[in-house]
Amino acid sequence: DESSGYESESAGGERAGAAAAGGSRGRQRRARTAFTSEQVCRLEKTFQRQKYLGATERRKLAAALQLSEIQIKTWFQNRRMKLKRQI
């Protein structure tokens, strides 16, 4: 059984999510992923080589960094937006 690394999937995540949202009803927000410095370094190096990853590259990188493919995909999307803002 594999976890995505999000806090909201842990036991009692519903209560923690409601408390984090100020107790308001509605959609629950996922906890922010805290990447290690090694993970960020590897992600940045990969991003410098190629701005977009295919499914195979994403799968390999996710396995190497012990992250989910969705986390890799989201990181690359956010990094491309950061680059766009800088330009």
How would you concisely characterize the structure shown here?
The protein is mainly α. It has helices at residues 13-20, 37-49, 55-65, 69-86.
- Averaged pLDDT: 81
According to CATH, what is the topology of one domain?
A: Arc Repressor Mutant, subunit A
Strand coverage percent: under 5%
Total number of beta strands: 0
Along the chain, the helix and strand elements come as: HHHH
Q: What does this protein look like?
A:
It is a single chain. By secondary structure, the chain is mainly alpha-helical. The protein has a domain at 37-86: Arc Repressor Mutant, subunit A (Orthogonal Bundle). The chain has helices spanning 13-20, 37-49, 55-65, 69-86. The longest helix has 18 residues, at 69-86. The radius of gyration is 15 Å and the shape is globular. InterPro entries: HD (IPR001356), HD_metazoa (IPR020479), Homeobox_CS (IPR017970), Homeobox_TF (IPR050848), Homeodomain-like_sf (IPR009057). It comes from Irena cyanogastra (Philippine fairy-bluebird). Residues 26-86 form the Homeobox domain. This is VENT1 protein.
Key phrases:
87 residues; Arc Repressor Mutant, subunit A; mainly alpha; 0% strand; 4 helices
Topology:
Layout: H1 13-20, H2 37-49, H3 55-65, H4 69-86
Helix pairs in contact: 3-4
